Amino acid sequence: MRLRALIAVAAAGVLLSAGLVAAQTAQAATGDGSPGDANIAFVGRWDRTNASAYVPNWAGAYLRTGFTGTTVKLRQRNTIDLYYSLDGGSTGYLQNVSGTVNLTPSPLPAGNHTLLVSYRVVAGSYTGDAVFQGLILDSGARTLPAAVSPKLVEFVGDSITVGTTSSKNALTAYGWLTGEQLGVQHTQIGYGGGCLVATADGCVSVAAQFLKTGYAATSSNWDFTRYQANAVVINLGTNDKSHSVSSADFQNGYVAFLRTVRAKYPNAAIIALETFSKRYAAETQAAVNTQNTAGDRNIFYVNTEGWLPSDGLSDSVHPNDKGHQAITAKLAPVIAARLNTTTSPSPSATRSPSPNPSSGTTGCAVTYTITNQWQGGFQADVTVKNLTATPVTGWTVRWTFPAGQTAVQAWNATTTQSGTAVAATNATWNATIAPGGTAAFGFTGTWTATNPTPSDFTLNGSRC
Predict the structure, then answer these.
(1) Which H, E and C letters describe 57-77, residue by residue?
(2) CA distance 441 to 288
(3) What CATH number did the domain enclosing 352 receive?
(4) 446 has which bridge partners?
(5) Boundary residue ending a domain (288, 309, 339)
(6) Measuring CA to CA, which residue among 67, 87, 76 is closest to residue 120?
(7) For residue 113, which of 64, 44, 176, 184 has the smallest C-alpha distance?
């Protein structure tokens, strides 16, 4: 009997080392509220090394699940501050809680419910214990599968992305607000005081830590097979200037980081924001242009001029709640255009060249394509071709919207609009169009009743 018992124990050890017992345990746990419960969606970078205690190491990580019954409690290890929302309601904030944390001191009506939990990021002077050890439900109750979007946006940055000085930190920062507005999964890979480029005086490179499970120098490498981001929004450069990072080093570092992100997320749209302080704007543009020229057309530079209102800062650097909301209003349509997969018919118009009597040129051709359209918004890509025998150096494409549409946010050009008249002017890197060559730009816009295609394009005053 003893021999049989030893054999059984040994066999169980072999199965455990092969991961089979662990798999069976995880499968059996579905519905019980444990960390391994398949009904709980852990969004962002959670360290799952300890199967009984999951740790979120970046701001903006959160969990979602459904559950039955009337009450729900958290199993916490040591003291932590946390945010939670039940049934999509207002966000509650609990400070210095530990052990069994009751999120429903007033029981809910019997039925199915939803839960969201996000821990205050452990960084800087805050040293709480952000560890999820499971849920406690009513007797006979169980969790339900979490309703989450299949799409995920990753926001990479510094304290601005983390939400420092906003009322609820990560939850009132533009990344969280934008993700919630778009109805997608979202996470914030941000480090307060972080730089793009690591410096000799100790500024942490967020670009380097991007590869890690957490912000700590000792963090293990992140397993990028856990999820693939559909879009990555980068907002870095605000802190590099104060650490004397040279223009060349910043630009080279940005190019390298774009390549890193692309290697990890081959299909993601990468959106490089101009910093709200305008620091390293030209270098960021040039880095994006380098990658565009190398063939990666799914990287976009976004000019943020005018995004922050005059009263949108809590200090000289950090947006307050109003500032983050204003950023969200501008950023959400830009990301939506890159994430939208359910499109309306995409009309396009190509205007044939025609001589301009006043200029004597032989003309140009413009192709305008609506590549995505959703209720009230759309994305258009525009290509202009130089059909003259001489280069065009510096260009402006003009047109009139026929149904009151507006151009909201452009890339690879700067747009201005007066009434229904729109002008798109070249960026610094695509100012010259060679004979027979083309320049391309795009923008997101809004529409109301209809969204017909313009037909009166001109290039530098010459009708196309």
Answers:
(1) CCCCCEEEEEEECCCEEEEEE
(2) 14
(3) 2.60.40.290
(4) 377, 406
(5) 339
(6) 76
(7) 64
| pTM score, whole prediction | 0.72
Same domain, 300 and 187: yes
Amino acid at 225: T
pLDDT of residue 455: 87
Q: Assess contact for 28 and 34: CB atoms under 8 A.
A: no
Contacts of 276 (CB under 8 A, 6+ apart): 160, 235, 238, 304, 307, 308, 319, 327
Pairing of β 364-374 and β 348-351: antiparallel
| 125 and 272 together in one domain | no
User: Residue 340: its pLDDT value, please?
Assistant: 62
- The tokens for 369 are 């394509």
157 and 276 in a single domain? The answer is: yes
Q: What whole-number distance in Å separates Cα of residue 72 and Cα of residue 101?
A: 9
Do 169 and 65 fall into the same domain? no
Are 312 and 380 found together in one domain? no
CATH code for position 140: 2.60.120.260
Q: Are residues 159 and 302 in the same domain?
A: yes
Return the pLDDT at 342.
35
Out of 144, 161, 189, a domain closes at 144
176 shares its domain with 233: yes
Residues 411, 274: one domain?
A: no
Domain enclosing residue 436, as ranges: 348-463
- List pLDDT tens digits, range 108-131: 999 999 999 999 887 667 778 999
In a domain? residue 24: no
pLDDT at position 12 over 80:
no
Name residues whose C-beta falls within 8 Å of residue 92's C-beta, 6 or more positions apart in sequence.
83, 84, 85, 86, 103
Please report the pLDDT score of residue 370 as a whole number. Answer: 86
Note the residue count of the chain: 464
Instruction: Give residue 10's pLDDT.
Output: 36
The C-alpha atoms of residue 34 and residue 428 are separated, in whole angstroms, by 54
Tens digits of residue pLDDT in 178-192: 999 888 999 999 989
* Residue 133 DSSP one-character state: -
Q: Is residue 10 part of a domain?
A: no
Burial of 185 (0-12, 13-18, 19+ CB in 10 A): buried
